[in-house]
Amino acid sequence: MPAPTAIVLLSGGLDSAVTLALAREMRFETYALSFNYGQRHAIELESAKAVAAALGALRHVIVPIDLRCFGGSALTSDLPVPKDRLPEEMNEGIPITYVPARNTIFLSFALALAEVTLANDIFIGVNVLDYSGYPDCRPEYIKAFTAMANLATKAAVSGNARTTIHAPLIQMTKAQIIQKGLDLGVDFSLTSSCYDPAEDGAACGRCDSCTLRLKGFRELGREDMRRYVAR
Predict the structure, then answer these.
(1) What is the C-alpha separation between 130 and 137, in angstroms, rounded?
(2) Residue 185, domain CATH
(3) Per-block average pLDDT, block size 10, for the chain (231 residues)?
(4) How far apart are CA 211 and CA 222, in angstroms?
(5) Residue 13's domain spans which residues?
(6) Which pLDDT score, from 0 to 100, does residue 130 have?
(7) Rg of the chain, C-alpha, whole Å
(8) Closest Cα to residue 32, out of 40, 43, 42, 45?
(9) Who contacts 214 (Cβ-Cβ below 8 Å, separation ≥6)?
């Protein structure tokens, strides 16, 4: 029988790269789905292309949507990206890097692509442990979206198939995610996690995302091969 197909949300960051590798380990043929949504760190799309190619995605779709028209986030506006925050500061409230309803928007597009490609599985690399307080990275959210998805698709309503949302990293620490990626052969030098990269694409090393990423590599005693701004 042919391998089942899955849609994998691929930002180009560390977590989504490991998620794509895990989907492949589970023997899915994968469609990688990325978004050019007006993010200030659009360099991540070049990383997404490289990761999709390296991990053998059947097809890589990049959807243009402009969330800058809504604003409300440091990632889609001129608001400053928080830097040099301690872990306990990251856990206080929802940070300004949260993009309103972003995962709901992305998963909705993934659901549409899944219907067209007859895929019953969607993968997303959300994480509840090292997640900087984002409300759409919680298990309750994934459960609720899954319930909605199975009320809203032709296949589910007709009784032919149900949609499963996979969040395989949701209970893993950043160090555990990195180790899993290393075990699966993920080339982390291709990935881009920084919220505020330099014009040449070098990671700042100071935003919440860089801080969590670097902490994970340090805990493993490994070097992060991503290029950072010289300090």
Answers:
(1) 10
(2) 3.40.50.620
(3) 92 97 97 97 95 98 96 94 88 88 97 95 90 82 96 86 95 96 97 95 95 95 93 57
(4) 15
(5) 5-220
(6) 65
(7) 17
(8) 45
(9) 205, 224
